[in-house]
Amino acid sequence: MDSSETLRRTPLYALHLELGGKMVPFAGYEMPVQYPAGILKEHLHTREKAGLFDVSHMGQAFLAGGDPSAALERLTPADVAGLKEGMQRYGLLLTHQGTIKDDFMFSRLAGEAPLYLVVNAGCKEGDFEYIAAQLKGLATLTPRPDRALLSLQGPLAAQALARHTRPDISSLTFMQVVRCEVAGARAIVSRTGYTGEDGFEISLEGADAERVARALLGEPEVMPIGLGARDSLRLEAGLCLYGHDMDETVDPVEANLVWSIGKRRKAEGGFAGANIVLDKLLNGVAKKRVGILPEGRAPAREGSGIAVDGKIVGRVTSGGFGPSLNGPLAMGYVESPFAALGTKLELMVRGKALAAVVAPMPFVPHGYKRN
Amino acid sequence: MSETRFTDQHEWVTLDGDNATVGITKYAAEALGDVVFVELPQKGRKVGAGAEAAVVESVKAASEVYSPVGGEVSEANAALEAAPATVNDDPEGSGWFFKLKGVSAGDFAKLMTKDAYAEFVKGL
Known about the structure:
The complex is a heterodimer of chains A (371) and B (124).
Chain A: H1 13-18, E1 22-26, E2 29-34, H2 39-48, E3 50-54, E4 59-64, H3 68-72, E5 87-94, E6 100-108, E7 115-119, H4 124-134, E8 140-143, E9 147-153, H5 157-162, E10 165-166, E11 177-182, E12 185-190, E13 199-205, H6 206-217, E14 222-224, H7 227-236, H8 263-268, H9 274-283, E15 287-294, E16 305-308, E17 311-322, E18 327-335, E19 344-349, E20 352-359
Parallel strand pairs in A: 3-14
Antiparallel strand pairs in A: 1-2, 3-9, 4-7, 4-8, 5-6, 6-7, 9-13, 10-11, 11-12, 12-13, 15-18, 15-20, 16-17, 16-19, 17-18, 19-20
Helix pairs in contact in A: 2-7
Chain B: E1 3-6, E2 11-16, E3 19-24, H1 26-32, E4 35-39, E5 46-47, E6 52-58, E7 62-66, E8 71-76, H2 79-82, H3 86-89, E9 98-101, H4 105-109, H5 114-122
Antiparallel strand pairs in B: 1-2, 2-3, 3-9, 4-6, 5-8, 6-7, 8-9
């Protein structure tokens, strides 16, 4: 795709330019890949203090109808019905072949029947069409392109946000979600994010986004963070990027996301591709997503072959340099016999075999506020 | 008396007799962002003009460094392996990548002068 005419902009576009953001095309939007501080500093700042991300390109929607939980459970193996009020949860949207159409977050706001959904930017049109068509007659999906989404991440995010919220949100724990006011704007705030740090996602009307973003950026702890650092942060946290670490060619078992399948759902099935997924849960899969630590300093990028004894057994799906890890890291798929922690691998980089090992994820410990 | 010339791939090369020093330009270093890894050529390796000779990686991506002129690698800047950020701090000085010997003046003469490169960058 060429031409900035065809690229969309978020409500924070002018602010990104003012802050010196280096704009690049991403998922059909013009987004800041970094600001003048650069990816390395932005990454480290988020781990030490707090960083503000514009994730308004992501797809937000409400799912209403008689029983939106039961309806949504047709398309995801997550336990939707069991989600308590005021909580958010991670789920996978599956095809009828049991492969991953997208990953998403869903919330049950206190006292509200509709579910609030957030899906990936690059998938949103397809997801919304799929959900609406599949759940026709059962539930009504209302996309909310009018809403913006900010993400404030890092160990000092809570104290910075607390100065602007009513009522106080400091007592929220990981995965809790509330409606509240942020800098006077009506918002949905969840204690979640995709960096591995404590943090918040703030959904609000597009018209309020710039004012709220400016208020948060005015706090001494907070600096603006681009997509480059978002990627290195999520990789260190061991979190999948859709279209890279998972897509419609892999299922939840291969993607090592079985934890997102509810216990009741494993017993009962009843979701798209359930027979295939439950069979794989029972009988195993041919390949699996693993974390990989190269032994040297050279990063292995997406697409690099993974070999054992000179034979290709997999492929890197995300790879680069982890600023907090201060070294290279990767994730990828390997044939199941080579997926055990500690398995020695070779990464094929520019014709050379670099020593690496299957490593536990996250690569950098999560800082979620669990209680 | 040495002179420095530039390529459209944003390498610089300083020629002194038939010895050359090669690095990436300030423009390239800024475009790449924080350099976290460099792969340098082995001493003794013969490289042709325009051949891939080194790799520079930022947090985000890997890029090849092409040798602007042909010659034999006489030294690589080993200091970059421990301190790759030197490429950002001083790209056209202590952030040099490798040195060549036996360089032909003919290869060198085809490259952009400092002024021509400045014009070229302005047009990007």
